[in-house]
Amino acid sequence: MLAYVRLEIRRTLRDTGFVIGGMAMPVMMYLLFTNLGENDGAWKTTAMVGMAAYGAVGSGLNTGGAVAEDRATGWLRQLRVTPMTPREVVIGRTLTGVVTVLPSIVAVLAAGGLVNGVRLAAGHWVAIALLLWLGSIPFTLLGLGNGYRLTGPSTGVVNMVCNLGLAVIGGLWFPISLFPGWLQTLSAYTPTHRFAQLGTAVTEGHAPGVGAIIVLTAWLALFGSYAVLSYRHRAGTI
């Protein structure tokens, strides 16, 4: 399985689309959103975490697009004859997604510190990157589930809708305080809002709340089950 993970990581990092969509786009959006009009330092810090989370979600979901391509080329058919179980295949792909999410997070954090002048303690920078890195696992699993279950074109569309919808409703682009009351309540249960809270808690000087961990764990179990079931479903047709 480790050899499989190394292979997939190399394939992903060589993909030009990943570099542009997973790294360059979140950085450009962050710099644009925080340098229009009067924006204080607190907003630049909060937006940095939110856009790093957005980049991580997009990179995690992008793993599903690679899976759909593998199905088209017959790579999944080859995996069926290996000793790896469906669970190990999903875990291997998840590890690939987790590793390739890190550059997206680091790129936005670097833009915050080097361009926007965000100042945090060294330990806080590390904690934010680590928490967002680990917290991105549910979104990688969601992307995998879509990639295993849907066709190639459908995977791209569904992942894009998931990325944009979860980003907006979860408050990754705008503060949820701007939302109407009912949408603020809904946002609290979204995985993206709780995901961003992992990082914003550190910038505010405290550990992530129990609520954020519970909600993310629930989504992790749901998306993980979806990914495994989708792989098993597709394995019977390839």
Walk me through this protein's architecture:
With 238 residues, the chain is mainly α. The protein has one domain (2-235). It is 79% helix and 0% strand. The chain has helices at 2-13, 16-33, 41-73, 75-79, 86-114, 122-135, 137-149, 152-169, 181-187, 191-203, 210-235. Helix 3 (41-73) runs antiparallel to helix 8 (152-169). The longest helix has 33 residues, at 41-73.
Short précis:
The chain has eleven helices and no strands. It is mainly α and 238 residues long.
Biggest sheet layout: none
Gross morphology is globular
Instruction: Give the H and E element order.
Output: HHHHHHHHHHH
User: Residue-averaged pLDDT, rounded?
Assistant: 85
What is the count of distinct domains? 1
Describe how the helices and strands are arranged:
Layout: H1 2-13, H2 16-33, H3 41-73, H4 75-79, H5 86-114, H6 122-135, H7 137-149, H8 152-169, H9 181-187, H10 191-203, H11 210-235
Helix pairs in contact: 1-5, 2-3, 2-5, 3-5, 3-7, 3-8, 3-10, 5-6, 5-7, 6-10, 7-8, 7-11, 10-11
Considering the chains and any ligands shown, give keywords for the structure.
globular, single chain, mainly alpha, 238 residues
